[in-house]
Known about the structure:
about 190 residues; mainly beta; 4-stranded antiparallel sheet; about 55% strand
Amino acid sequence: NSTLTLDKTEAQAGETVTVTLNMPDGANLYVDPESGSISLKVSYSTEDGEEEVSLSQVDETTYTFEMPDAEVSVEAYFEWGEFELTADAPEGCEVVLEPENSCKPGTWVQATVNITDQTLAVIAVHISYLKNEELVTEGVDFAYDGSGVIAYFTMPAADVTVTVETDTVYAATGTCGDNLTWTLDSDGLLT
C-alpha cells in the first residue's frame, strides 16, 4: 500500500525533483541494519554500470535530488513497523499475550486466558482494530487447555485490543447422607 510520487514526470538536467513517500500508518522506508542506509534509491545507467544520485531529505516523507543528464530510475522498499497489542479481560481472568506488547503485521499471536475465578467460563475472544478509520471486531477461535483458554490470530497492520467475554458457570456438588452425591451442572440440571 506504499507508493512514491514524483513532482514531475520529465525534468531537465540540473532541475530539482521532489520525491514524496505515500505510506500508511505504521509503514517505514526499509533501513539496512548493517549500513544504516535507507532503501530509497535514484539511479541511472552509464557505460560503466549504474550510478546513484544523491538525495536530500526534506522531512520524514519528502526527498529531493538534482536531475542528471540521463533518464533515472526511482525505487524504494518499505517495511511495516510494529503495532501495539493490549488485552481487556473481566475480573477473574488474566490475558497473557505472546509477543507481549507489540509486533509486526503477519506475526502469529497467542493469547492465553488464565481463569482465576472458577465460576467463570470464557464464551468469546475478539480482536478489535481500526481499518480505514473504521472499527473492526473479529471473533477468534479458541480452545480450552485444562486451566484456561488459548487463542491464536495473525496480527493485522493496526494496533489490536484482545477482548475476552465470560459468563458465570453455576455448578456445585454435594452429598446427602452416606451414599448419595448430587451435582448441579452449569445448565441447572440436578443429577
